[in-house]
Design goal:
It contains five helices and 30 strands. It is mainly beta. The longest helix is centred in the first third of the chain and has 7 residues.
Length: 361
């Protein structure tokens, strides 16, 4: 199909993944399988509409997860109760064209800049899966892309990688308290009619269960459906199990160092799993997680949990789970967020088998 601007032209990978004119695929084509629907059978939201926090509070439960994106102070929340039915929102936040994505089968929420080689495009759902992960396609060239790592793996753009931006699933109660002036994706103007607020993947989030539509081998260092927090820094990949970073109640702090970079992980109770029960808000407690670089004005901070808050040892300022100091000498300061994925072990370890796994005691 024709491509705009400087992007290469060529056939569509949606129509023929094995076309001889394509660069060598980055994955075994036999591992890309049908997920059931045709391309865009799970319809992305291409013209997103937003409401205020107050308006959204009428239909969002405090424990529900929302995916939060903040670009230069333009803060938006994308409720998972909407994303699980659409999987991709093509939006522009803070002037930056973004694809905000969520794969329910992997519980992976990742946001990307949707500019490729200087050309703005949009993304759709291909209808296919790669080791149970959403395979996206760009509408400029119809190349195929993995959702979890943003790589073009088949088609004329094979080898390109989308730039990720930090985004995080946060309990609605924490988000509305911290960002009362933000915008929230409106479930009444998505362009489709869906049973928002319900989970069509009931029972998927079972730590002792097996992944759905996954045909690979599971890394036996952890259970396939173990929830993890995973990231990559300077080529080093690390993942922390839920037990390693959480507490029975309240909050927890985990401090670590990856590739020479100090990190702090905040965990706070109050978020329900969207993938356990038919009612999203009725899922088991999984907590909200934030990962940050613990440096403010050149000073490295250390933290401890106190109730449901976080306190730095250097100034005794109090911080929320979004990494902002809400009181004390550093009030108004914010920690730099680190891009991470909160997903299931089977998924991340398939893409990054070299991952260092940090488990709880």
């Amino acid at each position: 199909m024709p491509a705009a601007g400087p992007l290469p032209e060529g056939p569509s990978a949606l129509d023929d993944r094995s076309n001889a004119s394509f660069p060598e695929p980055l994955v075994d084509l036999n591992d890309i399988v049908s997920g059931g629907p045709p391309p865009d059978g799970i319809p992305p939201i291409d013209d997103p509409k937003f409401v205020t926090v107050t308006e959204a509070d009428a239909w969002l439960n405090d424990a529900e997860p929302v995916l939060v994106v903040d670009v230069d102070g333009d803060v938006r929340a994308y409720p998972i109760q909407i994303l699980m039915w659409h999987e991709i929102v093509n939006d522009t936040v803070g002037g930056v064209p973004l694809a905000v994505t969520y794969c329910p089968l992997c519980n992976s929420a990742v946001s990307f800049e949707r500019t490729v080689r200087g050309v703005e495009t949009t993304f759709g759902t291909s209808g296919s899966l790669y080791f149970a992960n959403l395979v996206m396609y760009d509408r400029a060239t119809e190349s195929l892309w993995n959702q979890i790592d943003g790589r073009a793996v088949v088609g004329v753009l094979t080898g390109d990688v989308l730039a990720q931006i930090p985004s995080n699933m946060v309990a609605w109660s924490d988000f509305k308290a911290a960002r009362p002036d933000a915008q929230v994706l409106d479930r009444n103007r998505t362009g489709a009619s869906r049973n928002y607020g319900t989970n069509p993947y009931t029972g998927l989030d079972d730590p002792n269960g097996q992944p759905f539509l996954f045909r690979g081998d599971v890394d036996v260092r952890a259970k396939a459906m173990q929830r993890i927090v995973a990231l990559e820094l300077d080529g080093d990949a690390a993942a922390w199990t839920e037990d390693a970073i959480s507490a029975d109640t309240g909050a927890a702090v985990t401090e670590d160092d990856i590739a020479g970079q100090p990190l702090v992980i905040f965990w706070k109770e109050g978020q329900a799993s969207a993938l356990e029960s038919s009612d999203i808000a009725g899922g088991r407690e999984v907590g909200t997680v934030g990962v940050f670089i613990p440096v403010v004005d050149g000073q490295t901070l250390t933290f401890r949990a106190d109730g449901s808050s976080f306190i730095d040892d250097q100034t005794s300022s109090i911080w929320d789970v979004l990494g902002e100091a809400v009181s004390g000498p550093l009030a108004g300061s914010a920690l730099e967020p680190v891009t991470f994925v909160r997903t299931f072990w089977f998924s991340w370890s398939t893409f990054r088998p070299d991952t260092e796994l940090i488990e709880g005691q």
